[in-house]
């Protein structure tokens, strides 16, 4: 008799045949690849304005800080949508839900491409937040249902490689398209990508019925676990610090290092390539020791953010490129290692833990973009780097003194 995957043995779970092969349609590594494409698409959709802040602000007649609200609003909505949608779709097939949410992202990007003013653009970004929060919360914990247990760590790294690939391909490509055809063309291209990924999710994923009801009380009870609280505080500090700085990386590179418009996409590409490497390296490290891996990540990220203005002024674009690559290497491992921390802290409530993870992660993105915007308008873009570095140091302290999860 085939045994079900580690989810309590509920009816409807995908079965594992002897030798680790799945029975039934779809799933396996093609399904994992579709989830990776999904994380790539939602993160690219969320972060697309980062490389387009200057042309968006110029076209709509708004400041860099106001243009940064396009990232802030998306993060805030995603933070609320992640736990809310997880509860609302508790008994729905995950394949159907993911496909519908990806279609919502396509509509949102289409609306953004036609936005005549910042109000309409922000409405479109609200829809991006709804789709993103739901996709990420649900997809993050599905690798365990698609591959044998011994492959879960690798599959989880692959799912989260979509986050790093968004930096490698998505944001630089969006910046490049924006340079060629304007920022609206970048959002139009993202509409087509979302539609294609929606089809891929529908075709490559197997039916994924809910493994059991997800209730608000069960999600809130996760806060009783000290290692869960530590992990969520770590995510809040580290991600807020990163996005306070990264949301305004284009103005920093332009004003401090003297980078031209054509060099920005190359520098962001260097960030993304390093991040993709960091994702897989951190995934392997976090499977062995989440604490050690995150200590390294926090320390390196803090150092890179704090050094960027100094190195940019002293060494220009080449020096800034090196620091940006190191920054990308560190940040590329954040998603997979913090997710691994929380999954190990709550092994019997993966979807609830994922919902909290995505809520805090995206709330931190919004807070980072908001505080970074206020710092940029008040202290100048160099002051934004100091704020981001200090918050990353706070994350380093949290990892060092907080409760780590047991091995799971």
Automatic annotation (TrEMBL):
GO CC annotation: plasma membrane
Tell me the ranges covered by the Major facilitator superfamily (MFS) profile domain, including all copies. 31-406
Pfam families annotated for this entry? Answer: MFS_1
InterPro entries, alphabetized = MFS, MFS_dom, MFS_Efflux_Transporters, MFS_trans_sf
Q: How does it sit in the membrane?
A: Multi-pass membrane protein
Q: Where in the cell is it found?
A: Cell membrane
Residue spans making up a coiled coil are none
Provide the alphabetized UniProt keywords.
Cell membrane, Membrane, Transmembrane, Transmembrane helix
Chief site of localization = membrane
Question: What is the official name of this protein in its record?
Answer: MFS transporter
Q: Which organism is it from?
A: Streptomyces gilvosporeus
């Amino acid at each position: 008799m085939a045994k079900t995957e580690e989810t309590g043995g509920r009816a409807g779970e995908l079965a594992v045949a002897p030798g680790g092969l799945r029975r039934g349609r779809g799933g396996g590594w093609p399904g994992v690849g579709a989830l990776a494409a999904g994380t790539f698409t939602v993160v690219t959709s969320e972060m697309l304005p980062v490389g387009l802040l200057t042309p968006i602000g110029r076209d709509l007649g708004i400041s860099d800080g106001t243009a940064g609200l396009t990232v802030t609003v998306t993060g805030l909505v995603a933070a609320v949508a992640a736990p809310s949608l997880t509860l609302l779709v508790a008994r729905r097939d995950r394949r159907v839900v993911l496909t519908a949410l990806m279609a919502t992202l396509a509509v949102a990007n289409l609306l953004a491409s036609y936005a005549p003013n910042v109000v309409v653009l922000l409405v479109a970004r609200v829809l991006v937040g709804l789709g993103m929060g739901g996709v990420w919360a649900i997809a993050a914990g599905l690798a365990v249902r698609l591959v044998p247990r011994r492959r879960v760590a690798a599959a989880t790294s692959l799912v989260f490689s979509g986050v790093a690939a968004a930096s490698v391909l998505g944001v630089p490509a969006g910046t490049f398209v924006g340079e060629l055809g304007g920022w609206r063309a970048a959002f139009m291209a993202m509409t087509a990508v979302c539609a294609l990924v929606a089809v891929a999710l529908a075709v490559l994923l197997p039916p994924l019925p809910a493994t059991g009801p997800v209730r608000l009380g069960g999600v809130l009870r996760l806060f009783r676990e000290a290692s869960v609280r530590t992990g969520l505080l770590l995510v809040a500090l580290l991600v807020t610090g990163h996005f306070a700085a990264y949301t305004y990386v284009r103005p920093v590179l332009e004003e401090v290092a003297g980078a031209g418009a054509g060099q920005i996409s190359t520098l962001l590409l260097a960030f993304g390539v390093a991040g993709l490497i960091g994702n897989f390296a951190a995934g392997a490290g976090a499977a062995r020791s989440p604490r050690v891996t995150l200590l390294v990540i926090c320390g390196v990220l803090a150092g890179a953010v704090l050094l960027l203005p100094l190195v940019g002024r002293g060494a220009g674009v080449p020096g800034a490129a090196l620091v940006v690559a190191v920054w990308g290497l560190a940040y590329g491992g954040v998603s997979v290692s913090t997710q691994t921390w929380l999954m190990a802290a709550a092994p019997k409530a993966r979807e609830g833990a994922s919902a909290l993870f995505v809520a805090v992660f995206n709330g931190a993105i919004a807070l980072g973009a908001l505080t970074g915007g206020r710092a940029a308008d008040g202290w100048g873009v160099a002051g934004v780097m100091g704020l981001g570095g200090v918050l990353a140091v706070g994350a380093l302290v949290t990892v060092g003194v907080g409760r780590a999860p047991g091995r799971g």
